[in-house]
From TrEMBL:
This is Glycosyltransferase family 4 protein. It is a multi-pass membrane protein. GO terms for cellular component: plasma membrane. CDD domains: GT_WbpL_WbcO_like. It is found in: Cell membrane. It comes from Gilvimarinus xylanilyticus. The chain crosses the membrane at residues 6-26, 47-64, 70-89, 101-118, 130-149, 156-172, 184-202, 214-234, 240-259, 285-306, 312-330. Keywords: Cell membrane, Magnesium, Membrane, Metal-binding, Transferase, Transmembrane, Transmembrane helix. InterPro entries: Glycosyl_transferase_4 (IPR000715). GO terms for molecular function: metal ion binding; phosphotransferase activity, for other substituted phosphate groups. The keyword Cytoplasm does not apply. Signal peptide: none annotated. Its cofactor is Mg(2+). One of its GO terms (biological process) is cell wall macromolecule biosynthetic process.
Amino acid sequence: MILALQLIGAFFLAVALTYGLRGYALRANMLDHPGARSSHSEATPRGGGLSIVLVAVLAAFIFWGPGASFTDQLLVIVAMVLVAGVGWLDDRKHLPARYRLLVHLGAALLLVCSLWPAGVELLGVALPEWLWAICILLGVVWSINLFNFMDGINGIAGLQAVFVGLGLYALWCGHELGGIWQAEYWLVLAVASAGFLVFNFPRARVFMGDGCSGFLGMMLALGIVSLLSVSWSLFIAGVILHGVFIIDATYTLGLRLLLKENLSQAHRKHGYQKASRSLRSHTKVSLTIAGVNVLWLAPCSAAVALGFVNPLLGLIVAFAPLVGIARALGAGRDDVQSLT
């Protein structure tokens, strides 16, 4: 009963905060105008996703895991503030990418310290701690940025946060001693994201903004990476949940690297962006991705988590169709380029 009241409170608090932040953005002229990277046709206030950040930070003090030390808690809170803060500043006034990247690296380093040490084995071979730390550092930084890249059409990022948040709750149930938070924390994050969606989907009356998209990318990465303290299988199950965002963003970036493009140049080459132009609808694309999450990735994740499938095999099976879809949509290429 108490949890139900907390979730209801989190939802309506997120709705109220989003409404207030939208008004603030309009008064402060924090508007996203149509441009080279935009999939929208009219100026829209940004920064409304800070509501999710505020609810998530508040919930962090309520749902600390029984196995988390004060030092771990402090490191994570500082990382949360850093990523949300630099994103918010970028929403207010554009910051050079190098400054944002430095903050992202610093926040990721704090998370690595909070998770240290964690023994990780790959195919039965224990990874050296330094290699584990580098992999986690780069993975968190990439997650921060890929979530920002994927936040480009109505509802896509909020729906993803709801889905992965619910999935993390399911994976963490019964394993709280290994995590920073109790499993219920991820329910709160999902519910807060749903509250934001009231103003973002199907019609976007306010955008999430970099202050929240990067924050969500970091938090979901933390929830997934922390599962390594429980088992390799649960970690892979968590990665599978985030598959659509991981594959679309990584495939697009990888192909642009191969084509020797300027990676700092704004673009609209992600698979979801191409799909939204082809269908002339944000709603159809966001709901289709949600359907893929629920009908394909959730069962694949569950099969790995429950031990029905080898983790690496399950990852390949889950991701292979997503790679095929990204290629078929022409992700990473100009619209006029062929796929031959």
